[in-house]
Amino acid sequence: MVHVTLPDGTVNEYAAGITAGEVVTDALGRKHGCVAAYVDGVECDLSTMLHKDCSVTGISTSSPEGMYILRHSAAHLLAQAVNELYPDAKPTIGPPIDRGFYYDFAMEPISESDLKPIQKKMHEIARRNHSVERVELGEADLRDHFEHNPYKLEIIDDKLEAGEGSTIYRQGDWYDLCLGPHVPRTATLMHVRLTSVSTAYWRGDQDREQLVRIYGLVEPTKEALKATLARLEEAKKRDHRKLGKELRLFHVDEEVGQGLILWTPRGAVIRQELQDFISHHLRRQGYSQVFTPNIGKLDLYRTSGHFPYYQDSQYPPLVERDLMKRLSDEGCTCGELSNMMSAGDIEGYLLKPMNCPHHVKIYASQARSYRDLPLRLAEFGTVYRWEQSGEISGMTRVRGFTQDDAHLFVTEDQIAQEVLGCIELVQIIFGTLGMEDYRVRVGLRDPDSTKYVGDPARWDKAEQACRDAAESLGVAWTEEPGEAAFYGPKIDFVVKDVIGREWQLGTVQVDYNLPERFDLTYKGSDGEMHRPVMIHRAPFGSMERFVGVLIEHFAGMFPTWLSPTQVHMLTISEKHAAYAAELAADLREAGVRVLVDDSDDTIGKKLRTHRKMRPAYLLILGESEVEGRNVTYLGPDREEHKGVPFDDFRNALLKEISERR
RNA sequence: GCCACCGUGGCUUAGCGGUAUAGCACCUCAUUGGUAAUGAGGAGGUCGCGAGUUCGAUUCUCGCCGGUGGCUCCA
Q1: CA–C1' distance A241–B32 (Å)?
Q2: Looking at domain A65-235, what is its CATH homologous superfamily?
Q3: What is the rounded distance in angstroms from the CA atom of residue A604 to the CA atom of residue A261?
Q4: Which of A171, A314, A403, A509 is catalytic?
Q5: Rounded to two decimals, what is the model's pTM?
Q6: What 3-state DSSP class applies to A211?
Q7: Is A629 considered catalytic here?
Q8: Beta strand A375-384 with A261-263: parallel, antiparallel or unpaired?
């Protein structure tokens, strides 16, 4: 007999050897929806037999853990299907992920159109309803099972070295190396959908084999799968690349260059509003505005360390025409030229990859005393980075972008307070825009690495300042050792886009390195020369990326103050055009962005057209409005308000805008 | 950068070895219309670029450019 403690605290007595599944069924009934169970807190198969007293809790697909198990099992189903259709394909790894599952195979490349038959095969295997059995094997036996699969053998080597269990899971005549747990039968996996095929490197190593990766979704029920697919469709509509085109917010032109954003008038409004908004807070916090050029001499970036260390991710340098010609006449090869540039034998200019060296030079342009500090230099500085071509995407990953950058030159003692001030800015931005779904990452140094510059004691202090600042936010944050820049710790703000990809937006970084490299000093109250510390910070991060994420956050429906055209006036007929023009002039005088449509389309047509542009307010002006000197409008919620006195509308609108709502 | 797929007027898109659909947008005319498409007419494309195969290429092949999904990278 065994005594089993259930989640509600009751203790039941069963015959020894009863399975966890049977206990769960006994406790919750036959339709318990559980895919596995915790036995004494450890995830186990439902088929696990219980031989001693323990606690048992079912794991259902309503929990993240349950979904992970379902997805993991679906990955196995996928691998079995692929193996039945492509006997030579070698399964490698196939884990569950937040959005479903994938499995990597060593096989001939396949295309999207090959997914259908694979999916069909998966359904077929699911319907066969194989039981999924856990089998423990000895080492030799284990190797025999995977003798034709070098990838699995490599995993086995690692596992045995790490002392991990050597189990396989078998369904029908197919089996896979796996720790489990898994769903008990393949019929549980009926509701799968393969979504895409892609590639990945074996073990994420660019120098190793390229594998075929197949992605899929799985849900416990048909309805859930339908809902998930619908949600994905919905998300696609928010994609900033799609909306950016529809709403005419930005344009990327093949002929201008990959990853170079052209801000069209409507998008430029949003960016300008955001910049004005943050500028207001910069003045309040005592920042000084500066302007610096888009290029700088190579030597500057040799001193800063950006060149040649980050040469691969920069646009190639600009070299003087005469010099190029002379070198060319001398038969200098590209390789030689590159080497000479790296060695410092050739002078040239670089499109700036960062704003800091320029700001450093402003600091160094005059003697500084402790009374000058903190010195806060701010600039919307455009920087250029040669991102890998396959990485470029919409506005979120680009080759030229404008940082709402600033560099704070501070004394050691001022770090904590200034970091706090930077954090406050980020908080104001996220608060104003209602962005709540972000995570905070505090990047600390890896204690085992030697790549970091600066005194460990100062690092400790700066890391503590970052932790304290993050703590002051009142939101969840994580420490990530090894994620610090080589020159100092940092705080990053990360948000997700509609397809679940994470993007770093705001950042605050403490830097001991650049002041050292440029030999920056200030005279202290003690009359001695001291080294300032720099803080790099960009609350938006990059204007391009931020606006890209913002488009998706608002699904194109911006709050009134950001709306590219805040008020669209639609006339019923041309008889009302003069009234519309009069109101438009009045609102424009007050700084409101107004668009008047007095074309001869019908009002139904105009509404249809203008709704699509998602302005904050749609005004309908006809006979009754002209007579009553009022307006009828659809507000941001698209509720209709009839016959509102114009002044009331105007005042409420201006208030809303000034309050940045 | 790597792999797969994709590239037809401003946008969405049909099609195919014989120089090409349709809708929206645009222009003109009529219509003066009250809440998600008024009607009629018109203009607009060297089918991403270059080469090859062919009597003939938008269609087939190769290269390049660009996009999408991933991987790798991200000071």
Answers
A1: 39
A2: Threonyl-trna Synthetase; Chain A, domain 2 (3.30.980.10)
A3: 35
A4: A403
A5: 0.91
A6: strand
A7: no
A8: unpaired
Check: CB of residue A83 under 8 Å from CB of residue A89. Answer: yes
Which residues 543-602 of chain A have a CB under 7 Å from nucleic chain B? 571-575, 600-602
Is nucleic acid strand B under 7 Å from A393's C-beta? yes
Note whether A2-60 and A263-289+352-553 share their fold.
Answer: no
SS3 A224: helix
Q: Domain A263-289+352-553 carries which CATH code? A: 3.30.930.10
A536 classed as catalytic = yes
Fold of A567-658: Rossmann fold (3.40.50)
ipTM over 0.90: yes
Q: Are A82 and A91 in contact (CB under 8 A)?
A: yes
Q: Quick one: which of A445, A406, A397, A411 has its CA closest to A426?
A: A406
Distance from the Cα of residue A92 to its chain's centroid: 27
Q: Report CA(A534)–C1'(B36) in Å, whole number.
A: 55
Q: Quick one: which of A363, A327, A341, A392 has its CA closest to A511? A: A363
User: Domain boundaries in chain A?
Assistant: 2-60, 65-235, 263-289+352-553, 295-348, 567-658
Of the candidates A608, A538, A552, A175, the residue with the CA atom closest to the CA atom of residue A395: A552
Q: Which nucleotide is nearest to A604 (CA to C1')?
A: B35
* Distance of A618 CA from B40 C1′ (whole Å): 30
Q: Is the CB of A451 under 7 A from strand B?
A: no
Q: What is the pLDDT of residue A206?
A: 80
Distant-in-sequence, close-in-space partners of A578: CB < 8 Å, separation ≥ 6: none
Report if CB A115 to strand B is under 7 Å: no
Amino acid identity of residue A470, one-letter, is A
* Positions of strand B less than 7 angstroms from a protein CB: 1-5, 11-12, 25, 30-38, 65-75
Residues in contact with A566: Cβ distance below 8 Å, sequence separation at least 6, in sequence order: A560, A592, A593, A594, A615, A616, A617, A653, A657
Q: Is A116 known to be catalytic?
A: no
Asked if A490 is an active-site residue, the reply is yes
3-state secondary structure of A391: helix
Percent helix, strand, coil in chain A, to 5, is 40, 30, 35
Residue listed under structure tokens 């820049």: A485
Q: What is the reported pLDDT for A585?
A: 97
Indicate the CATH number of A2-60 among 3.40.50.261, 3.10.20.30, 3.40.720.10, 3.30.470.20: 3.10.20.30
User: Could you say which of A239, A405, A497, A598 is catalytic?
Assistant: A405
- Low-confidence stretches of chain A (pLDDT beneath 50): none
First-to-last alpha carbon distance for chain A, in angstroms, is 66
